[in-house]
């Protein structure tokens, strides 16, 4: 068994909802995220709020969000951060895929992932 760990998923979601004062469970944020064009916000996010685990293992890495403007919204920032998380998961997968058999199974865990409707 091979794997790669990240600390970004649920931690980024919880941090962004708290800091950006987004509602917890009304569904409006999720609807706005789903309706938004991928990368339509013009932001770039490095979601390393707790350092980086896979693939570089840089514990001192920190998050960054660039491209902010007067029209940037809280959901834009959350979307950019979550896209950064997805990019990180893709990077882990790219590293692991050559080591796996052609009929491999990807297993993802975590509270936020388990509660996600999609």
Level-1 CATH class name:
Alpha Beta
User: How much helix, percentage-wise, in residues?
Assistant: 25-40%
How many individual β-strands? Answer: 2
H/E series, N to C? HHEEHH
What class, by secondary structure content? mainly alpha
Our estimate of the beta-strand percent is 5-15%
According to CATH, what is the topology?
Answer: Nucleotidyltransferase, domain 5
Number of helices: 4
Rg over C-alpha atoms, rounded to the nearest angstrom? 15 Å
Mean pLDDT: 85
Give the neighbour order of strands across the main sheet: 1-2
Instruction: Return the CATH architecture.
Output: 2-Layer Sandwich
Amino- and carboxy-terminal Cα gap: 26 Å
Unreliable runs, pLDDT <50, ≥5 residues?
A: none
CATH superfamily: ATPase, nucleotide binding domain
Question: If you had to describe this structure to a student in words, what would you say it looks like?
Answer:
This protein has a single domain, classed as ATPase, nucleotide binding domain (Nucleotidyltransferase, domain 5, 2-Layer Sandwich). It contains 4 helices and 2 strands; from the N terminus they run H-H-E-E-H-H. It has helices at residues 9-19, 28-35, 74-96, 111-115, and strands at 44-46, 64-66. A two-stranded antiparallel sheet has the order 1-2. The radius of gyration is 15 Å and the shape is globular.
């Amino acid at each position: 068994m091979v794997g790669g760990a990240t600390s970004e998923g649920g931690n980024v979601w919880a941090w962004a909802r708290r800091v950006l004062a987004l509602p917890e469970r009304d569904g409006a944020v999720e609807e706005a995220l789903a309706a938004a064009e991928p990368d339509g916000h013009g932001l770039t996010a490095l979601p390393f709020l707790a350092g980086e685990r896979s693939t570089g293992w840089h514990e001192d890495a920190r998050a960054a969000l660039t491209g902010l403007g007067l029209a940037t919204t809280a959901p834009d920032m959350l979307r950019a951060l979550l896209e950064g998380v997805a990019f990180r998961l893709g990077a882990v997968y790219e590293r692991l895929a050559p080591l796996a058999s052609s009929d491999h199974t990807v297993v993802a865990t975590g509270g936020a992932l388990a509660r996600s409707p999609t």
